[in-house]
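Throughout our pipeline, every protein is held as a single compact record rather than as scattered files. Nothing more is needed to write down the fold, since each code stands for a local backbone conformation. For reference, a complete record is included directly beneath this paragraph.
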Amino acid sequence: MPADPRVEEWSTVTAEPAPAPVGLSARDVTLSYGRTPVVEGVDLDLPDGGLTVIVGPNGCGKSTLLKSFARVLRPVGGTITLAGRDVHAHRGREFARKVALLPQSPIAPEGITVRGLVRRGRHPHHTLLRQWSPDDDRAIAFALDRTGLADLADTPVGDLSGGQRQRAWIAMVLAQQTPVILLDEPTTFLDIAHQYELLELCAELNREGRTIAAVLHDLDQAARFASNLVVMKSGRIVAEGPPDAVLTAERVHDVFALPCDITRDPITGTPKVIPHTRTQRSGPGVMPNGGTAARP
């Protein structure tokens, strides 16, 4: 099988030095919107240098938990810590130099170019005493090059395709130069080729030393790319660990109400979910609504 030229293009860029470990953890964390808890009593460490993927049914608290790690949401119980210190005790710019969040469906300012969007990733590095410098130019050039957008730097973000636009947001996060990157459903609205293109880039950044945590829906993609797989159900973590240990047919059935078999991805050897057909789920001669199928 020939190599994907897009992956080769990104892999030719020289990597930055590996970031130092930071340690991002949740302890007995409860999160809510109003009076209703969405996440309850969760303990989770994001392994330094790991690629953690969080999966679970809609509404189980995946994105809510990720937002708490980015201190977008404050826990109503428990603590989120960075290097052993409550994330809300860190100053804003200090925290933003260590942890970057790409939320779901971000909206770019009207008319902004790719370069202008990527420049915004440098804001945490600026103070009254430190304004724009050659370091900022180098960080932006690296981010544009690394995401294959150097030739589109002066293009309005609104003129990009969906895949290019998502890469532009990733480039902004890269320009922020944080050791931790949090991605909330980064493949949403992307076609299948761009989904894998983006996830390959995340895997490359992880191999270069960045700690990455992402919320994904596709279990096969999660198993292929995660070093640490977290499964949530009804606001709690029900399993965590290597995909081989976590992704079982029994667990997929329990969490997602999907009868299935687990086989092996022929390319990577990682777990792959094979859903049962409707006939297998219903049993021979049984209709999905519980009736009996007509027999010849």
About this structure: The mean pLDDT is 88. The first strand starts at residue 24 and ends at 33.
